[in-house]
Amino acid sequence: MSGNATQGAGNWVSNDNQVRFTSSKTNKQNKTIDEESSFATSAAQLSADGAFSMSVDLASVKTNIDLRDERLRDWVFEVAQFPKAEISGKIDMNAIGSLKTGDSLQLKQPLTLDLHGSKQDIEAELTLKRGADNSISVATAQPVVVDAKKLGMSGGVAKLVEVMGLASINEQIPVTFNGTFTRQ
């Protein structure tokens, strides 16, 4: 094993993630409103062999409106049946091991999203920055677009449109991630 590969070895964990999404809704007057929301609870890990996994607690959704949070949990995410979103993939540990303190790297990363009983292959454009020997910050360089329709959540979205008296809600949801991974 080279010195660089050794630097990347070990398990990395992140519990201080910021997972945000933007919903776009159009009212009956054709005015579009974008609203940013987030999830308060998520955890991610990266194993020494490059296996990446992340779990997002869907019940932790935060829109700053309690009733909307409840409707998203019950109607769209259906957390009683599907409590978590799971993201997985395989990361190039040699690329991570080659980062020195202060270095950054752009990485196009194929991932699999398992949400609402369906899977969607996604590609994330990530920026990785080495903060110290035992920490790496990771952020999406561009939002990842999640398709609510492909994931079987259209019924819940339609219910929101009806109850809120909207013309529509865009089912293409941009999602961003920002977190710091610490080597254990």
UniProtKB/TrEMBL annotation:
Residues 1-30 have a biased composition (Polar residues). SMART domains: YceI (SM00867). SUPFAM superfamilies: YceI-like. Residues 1-36 are annotated as: Disordered. Residues 11-182 form the Lipid/polyisoprenoid-binding YceI-like domain. This is YceI-like domain protein. It comes from Kingella oralis ATCC 51147.
